[in-house]
Write a structure and sequence with these properties.
Layout (H helix, E strand, L loop, with lengths): L1 E8 L7 H4 L22 E2 L13 E7 L4 H10 L5 E7 L3 H6 L3 E3 L22
Antiparallel strand pairs: 1-3, 1-4, 2-3, 4-5
Length: about 130
Amino acid sequence: FSFLEFLYFFVSSGINAEYGDLGGPDKNCTFSPGDTAPGAAMCKFPVSMGPCGPFLTAEYSFFIPPQNLTETSEWILQHRGIYDVYIHPNSGCETNDHTKWYTFSGTKWEIDASVFSCDYPGCIPQS
């Protein structure tokens, strides 16, 4: 079990260098659908400058182990500036993780939940 934190932004606003350095250059995540953790400590994913997967705008995301959730969430919420923040768990149930068990700070962006499945062990969709 783990968490992902996302910064949403309009491409025209770009991404602040403060966030670009978060996690260090050697801390890039490798992650596959259905994984609940990338097998590493806190890491970052490449910046997506346009719609990608369920996300309908540019985004920058970070893998957060459970033991770091409080500290990193407090930091990102205090320093989000012009960005909107979306935090969701990685339980293995993509549908519920992204549509039921999340939190937003700032503008709540729509996501395309049709790309998710719930065919992982222990996943029971909630309506």
